[in-house]
Design goal:
Layout: H1 21-28, E1 32-34, H2 39-45, E2 69-71, H3 91-98, H4 119-135, H5 139-145, E3 147-148, E4 157-160, H6 173-183, E5 195-197, E6 200-203, H7 207-221, E7 245-249, H8 261-279, E8 283-290, H9 295-307, H10 310-315, H11 317-344, H12 350-354, H13 357-369, H14 373-396, E9 403-406, H15 412-424, E10 429-431, E11 434-436, H16 445-450, E12 455-457, H17 465-480, E13 484-488, H18 494-506, H19 510-513, E14 516-519, E15 524-525, H20 537-552, H21 556-561, H22 565-582, E16 590-591, H23 594-597, H24 605-622, H25 626-630, H26 640-650, H27 652-662, H28 665-682, H29 693-717
Parallel strand pairs: 7-8, 7-13, 8-9, 13-14, 15-16
Antiparallel strand pairs: 1-2, 3-4, 4-6, 5-6, 10-11, 11-12
Helix pairs in contact: 3-7, 4-5, 7-26, 7-29, 9-11, 9-13, 13-14, 15-17, 17-18, 20-22, 24-29, 26-28, 26-29, 27-28, 28-29
Family: Belongs to the class-I aminoacyl-tRNA synthetase family.
Protein name: arginine--tRNA ligase
Pfam family, one: tRNA-synt_1d
């Protein structure tokens, strides 16, 4: 758990007055009783304290009662006296200490409220409490109804009156909103008076408290800012119960074939999802389920026997095997066409078919399934050499796997057992010697028809992909007992995954099927392995790196300052490829475009890296240490550009949480580009060099916070932020 020790008193609002009449009267009497809910969230912040059971235990004198906590409050000045922050001060404590009138009554009762990691939850909780007093609507209805705006000019939070479940027959929502806005406190410590449009109320943060709470929080948390490890707990009320387990299966190339841009989509998305769930506190296992079994490897073995070269195999296994694959596949296609023509002409082609490459490949694979030592040795050599080469590519993409599995790892005995279960439970049936599943007989309505009639075993007894996937899924659950498993597979496999999950359910494992999710994606257009027109990923990365290197050389002074220009150019090239892939929604197809992806114009990988490198350059020029930056007087940041950047920075934990719902890399990428645009427009206004020392330090703190958030977002996507270019 990434959190700081928090005293019970640090979680309480310390106010001079409350908008609640009851609390106000108690305050006038000298004390105030606040209803608070320390239980779940306080234990998350401080796991060593267990919430007692009031029905069986007496409350310890050291733990306040849940029902009421009496606090004597001291008056604090507002933002008139700037304060220095230490790393032991949380955002909520800073707001409590500095702002009078802060309303955080029962903040931990709100759903999905994590004030220890997301400062905006403090703002939402305060606003929900204030609006409850203004509107009479339950705060637990208001809190989740507070939404983001589309852009900063429309405010920071927005509330739509219809979302509050207003009773029918009353005033129209647009009139109600006008009344509520008029009743909103004139001098709220965190928010300006709301703006009204139709039945929406838009709320703008006040700049001073935001700047003074967000910047020190970012500087304090650094690389952990935005993440929320509490989301991965099995039981948020009891952290000792441990973390939830997730399996992410992705990349999954076919061995002996080159890693091309089509494989890249699964790899990029899967790597991102692994990072995302780790940031959310889940226990993540990344699995590469290789396509390493099937008749095509019998065909490849034939090709190697006919055309293979041991030396070429050792030097460049992937490309050599791929060339053999294309060559033998071309011969097999031509052979099939000739046999078909002879058959049409009335010739007897029985012998030709029996000795065809296709039939030879089938027989060779049968030897593999029968565990023939020679056949398996050849296959294993192809597999091992392929994995070694793939690992080199994955390392360039910041990708790692905890397990290299594959179709070959599924035992014939397990598949035979699954086949037996399918028959016994009357899920599968025989059809011309093969076994198939007719979903229209098992699942009512249109769903059953859409699932079609997949084969689970061929006439010769050979299992199919679906059979293997059933066995692998059940074995995987037995091994890991996962809480969730994600398959990152192209949309072309939508039907296959739906069939798999439904079969698991029909076998009596609905609980396992419900834990599985297919994360699909569109295609990279223009790729075709069978025709030999594949663009190898290593070649693509080499080409884009060369182009980036050429661009870097145009500025000789900056180029000479880069410690390792080849490595930087490689990172820029990889970034250009990855950002183009992540720009749109996963399901969208896109055409690979070298010129577009390597451009510094527009929202591209090179531009994002440039924005990060530029803010790093500002820090180098300022020459300030982290300690000096942390001691900055943030109250000097009053310019609209500065406040707007902080407003965007404050959104990052929300963006992270929202991305956990969308599972779309573009959610993060769109935010990062919005941030880079705000930074770019600020440099002429918020100058570092030539500024007064105190102003310089404050602005540098702002840019350092932006540097942290940009880096965090880029690393989440799997990018390597560069500091010079």
């Amino acid at each position: 758990m990434l959190s700081l020790p928090v005293r019970p008193s640090a979680l309480l609002p310390c106010l001079p007055r409350s908008r609640s009449l009851l609390l106000h009267r108690r305050f006038l009497a000298g004390t105030r009783t606040l209803h608070s809910s320390f239980g779940p969230h306080f234990q998350t912040l401080n796991p060593s304290i267990r919430k007692p059971n009031p029905s069986t235990e007496k409350l310890s004198p050291s733990i306040p009662s849940r029902s009421s906590i009496t606090v004597t409050c001291n008056r604090y000045n507002s933002w008139q006296s700037p304060r220095r922050y230490t790393h032991s001060t949380t955002a909520m404590e800073q707001l409590q200490q500095q702002v009078e009138g802060l309303n955080l009554n029962a903040i931990t009762e709100f759903p999905n409220c994590y004030p220890d990691v997301n400062p905006l939850d403090v703002y939402r909780a305060h606003l929900a409490n204030v609006l409850t007093e203004v509107t009479g609507v339950d705060k637990n209805i208001i809190y989740p109804a507070l939404s983001w705006t589309q852009s900063l000019d429309k405010g920071d939070l927005v509330l739509a009156a219809p979302a509050l479940r207003l009773p029918k027959g009353g005033p129209k929502p647009d009139q109600i909103v006008q009344d509520w806005a008029a009743k909103f406190p004139e001098n709220d410590p965190l928010f300006e008076k709301p703006h009204v449009h139709s039945y929406f109320m838009s709320f703008f943060f006040k700049g001073a408290p935001l700047v003074n709470s967000i910047l020190p929080t970012i500087l304090q948390k650094g690389k952990t800012f935005g993440t929320n490890p509490s989301l991965g707990l099995k039981d948020p009320k009891e952290p000792s119960a441990g973390r939830k387990k997730i399996i992410v299966e992705f990349s999954s190339p076919n061995i002996a074939k080159p890693f091309h841009a089509g494989h890249l989509r699964s790899t990029i998305i899967g790597g991102f999802l692994g990072n995302l769930y780790e940031g959310a506190g889940w226990d993540v296992t990344r699995i590469n389920y290789l396509g390493d079994w099937g008749k095509q490897y019998g065909l490849l073995a034939l090709a190697f026997e006919k055309f293979g070269d041991e030396k070429a195999l050792e030097q460049d296994p992937i490309n050599h095997l791929f060339q053999l694959y294309v060559r033998i596949n071309t011969e097999m296609t031509e052979e099939k066409e000739q046999i078909a023509k002879r058959k049409e002409a009335g010739e007897d082609v029985t012998e030709a078919e029996a000795n065809s490459l296709d039939e030879q490949a089938r027989r060779y694979f049968k030897k593999m399934t029968d565990r023939d030592e020679k056949a398996l040795a050849m296959w294993k050599k192809f597999r091992d050499l392929s994995i070694v080469r793939y690992k080199q590519t994955y390392a360039r993409l910041n990708i790692h796997f905890d397990e290299y599995s594959g179709e070959s790892q599924v035992s014939e005995a397990d598949m035979a057992d699954i086949g037996k279960q399918l028959e016994e439970k009357k899920i599968s049936k025989e059809d011309n010697g093969a076994q198939l599943i007719d979903f229209s007989e098992l699942v009512p309505g249109k769903e059953g028809k859409r699932l079609e009639k997949p084969l689970v075993r061929k006439r010769d007894g050979t299992a199919l992909y679906l059979t293997r996937d059933i066995s692998e899924l059940l074995a995987r659950h037995a091994k890991y007992n996962f809480d969730k498993m994600i398959y990152v597979v192209a949309s072309a496999q939508d039907l296959h995954l739906k069939q798999l999950f439904k079969i698991i359910e029909l076998l009596g494992h609905k609980d396992i099927a419900d834990k599985c999710q297919h994360i699909n994606f569109g295609l990279v257009l223009g790729m075709s392995t069978r025709k030999g027109t594949v663009k190898f990923l290593d070649d693509i990365l080499r080409d884009v790196a060369d182009k980036m290197h050429e661009t870097m050389r145009k500025n000789e002074d900056k180029y000479n300052q880069v410690e390792n220009p080849d490595a930087v150019a490689d990172v820029l090239g990889i970034s250009s490829v990855m950002v183009q892939d992540m720009t749109g929604k996963r399901i969208n197809n896109y055409t690979f475009n070298m010129d577009q992806m390597t451009s510094f114009e527009g929202d591209t990988g090179p531009y994002l890296q440039y924005a990060h490198a530029r803010v790093c350059s500002i820090k180098r020029k300022a020459g300030l240490s982290d300690e000096e930056i942390a001691s900055a007087d943030f109250s000097l940041l009053t310019e609209a550009h500065a406040v707007n950047i902080v407003r965007l920075l404050a959104q990052w934990p929300d963006v992270f949480s929202n991305t956990l719902r969308t599972l779309e890399p573009t959610t993060v990428l769109a935010y990062l580009f919005k941030m880079t645009h705000a930074l770019s427009s600020s440099y002429d206004v918020l100058r570092i060099m030539g500024s007064e020392p105190a102003v310089l330090k404050a602005r540098m703190a702002l840019y350092e916070a932006a540097h942290i958030v940009l880096g965090n977002g880029m690393r989440l996507l799997g990018l390597s932020p560069v500091e010079r270019m």
